[in-house]
Specification:
The structure is a homodimer.
Chain A (H helix, E strand, L loop, with lengths): L2 E17 L2 E15 L2 E7 L9 H10 L11 H11 L4 H19 L3 H4 L12 E3 L4 H10 L5 E5 L5 H11 L3 E5 L7 H13 L2 E5 L7 H10 L4 E3 L9 H4 L5 E5 H4 L2 H13 L3 E5 L5 H10 L5 E2 L12 E2 L2 E3 L2 E3 L9 E2 L3
Helix pairs in contact in A: 2-3, 5-6, 7-8
């Protein structure tokens, strides 16, 4: 019999984190344990109100989940199909279960998940480090804090974007990637912003305009020269036919798509469609970050810094060296609880 | 160190096997063993001249393969990337290596591959049984031989297609699927044939016209009502963007696409593109059939009868019950050598 236990937890951000949609100091998550035959798999749901989830909706979803009819955690397609059908949406909640099941499977097989997926742990990408929207003084401090990381992901989508970028460029010529989080509401504004960013040597832009503005994106893409990556426009795998031909690539997050199983399917579909692939995250503990990191040898870009932005990570086991993701050799996700 | 050994073998067909392209009594394959640390993985390459392969080209390809630089069979993405880059094409030869590596991995983990892939062995589909092109008398005998199988796949693409189908319908109202193997050379002929087949209650038609006749297929699809499935038009994953929007579904064969790893990626991409998925085979031993069967719980249709059509199968371990595929609980492919 497969048992599931849940526990709420609040991740504390080291600094107030601001993106185009708003600011916060905490991220309220739900940690889960899936137990089977003496082994424990750990999972995490880090919900986002952009996708109509929060800690309460995750708890409510988990209250419906009954895995006692399943005897074998290896039958993950069946279990995840059951979970999928309990309610639409709720992808972060679903991801928590998926992550815990894969951790359990890896532990039962006594191999790390990257090995289970046939991947070479030396081929992990270098993650970007996120610089939230802030005053020039604070941004200056954050650049120092990010010294070790060779790639910065800069949050924009506010009136003083140019000032933010110029401040960063005053201190560093590192690779810059930019995320507007749907912040530019007109196509002309998006064009002007991106043409400026191109001159500043930005590598690509994530979600310049609202996800639903399909005509705007079509127009915009002909006016600019750097790739645009779908984030808010690319939730689950059912969105891929919508973003294919509109964007150059996609940002896959376990909390948007429903977990490792679905992320892998999206990766394979995206490669077949010649889309660039980024693997990203919400503000997450090392549980969610370790889960996404297992798949990172398959992708073009990684933005897996969620656990670096917090100061009370309840788990350890996933690290970086000069930004390069270091996967553990321990079974499953390779993580251990340390604060819970 | 990973070692590879090869052995040629000729599969004897129980009956002369005729399709639109020609007839034969034997299928010349190459069986391989991949050895690592005391464990043996079995693989098979069953080449087809339609894809510019034969037993000699497979041997020539294997002469180039040197896996001695690889120490870990679990790093299958790296190994298969190395194999892929040795030469273009040669997908049956490549599939042989892929199959043997997965058999080895399953044996090392002591689990069957369907479990490794997270699939429920009870959810295998029912395979069709293939009726080659023949005289009405022989077809009558073959229908008796196929008594146990509830779904027949009928090879057509010759002038007397109608006679073949009417002969079959005289004896049975079983589900019929039809494969023209590119045999109808004009779109009008294909339309007339399919409108006839629709009246005979045929479920779908595989590859009605030559793979390269894109305009013909576009025209044809508007004239008919049953699904058409790409076979010769769908080789490797790079073809999927070409067949998407032209066909209703695809026939994936390990020997066309390069093996289990690539077949899984095609399955995920095809599902994202809302294509129906059939898993098929060449004339193959139980090695290739068991490999494809491991993935069969993921697909809509199966045509995995290659090993039933021969009388000197060098392996055992994959069975059918009233056509439903029965997966073994033994590790890896779950097969054992019996005649080699």
């Amino acid at each position: 019999m497969i048992n599931i236990e849940r526990q709420t937890y609040s991740l504390n951000l080291k600094h107030t984190f601001t993106i185009a949609r708003g600011s916060r100091n905490q991220q309220h998550i739900v940690l889960i344990k899936i137990k089977h035959d003496g082994e424990i798999g750990y999972g995490e749901a880090s919900p986002s109100d952009r996708y109509k989830e929060n800690q309460n909706s995750v708890i409510k979803f988990y209250d419906q989940v009954d895995l006692s009819n399943f005897n074998d955690p290896f039958l993950i397609e069946d279990i995840l199909n059951y979970v999928e059908k309990l309610a639409p949406g709720n992808q972060a909640a679903k991801a928590g279960i998926d992550i815990a099941l894969y951790d359990l499977i890896g532990k039962k097989l006594k191999i790390p998940l990257w090995k289970y997926f046939g991947l070479n742990p030396d081929k992990t990408p270098t993650t970007s480090f996120t610089i939230g929207i802030d005053s020039p003084e604070i941004i200056e401090n954050k650049i120092k804090e990010a010294e070790e990381f060779p790639i910065l992901k800069v949050k924009v989508g506010v009136p003083n974007d140019e000032e933010i970028i110029k401040t960063i460029r005053k201190y560093t010529d590192k690779t810059l990637r930019v995320d507007a989080n749907e912040g530019w509401k007109s196509k002309e504004l998006a064009r002007d912003k991106i043409l400026f960013l191109e001159k500043e040597g930005v590598e690509f832009v994530e979600q310049p305009m609202p996800a639903e503005d399909v005509e705007g994106i079509k127009w915009l893409r002909k006016q600019i020269h750097i790739p645009i990556i779908a984030d808010e426009a690319m939730g689950t795998i059912s969105d891929i036919l919508k973003v294919y031909e509109l964007y150059d690539g996609i940002n896959i997050k376990l909390m948007k798509c429903g977990g490792i199983n679905k992320a892998l399917k999206i990766i394979h579909a995206a490669k077949a469609m010649n889309l660039k692939i980024m693997i990203g995250c919400m503000v997450e503990s090392s549980v969610g970050i370790a889960a996404a990191a297992q798949l990172s040898p398959l992708v073009d870009y990684a933005d897996l810094d969620g656990n670096i932005l917090i100061n009370n990570d309840p788990f350890t086991g996933i690290y970086h060296h000069k930004g390069k993701i270091i996967l553990s050799n321990e079974p499953g996700l390779g993580i251990q609880p340390c604060q819970i």
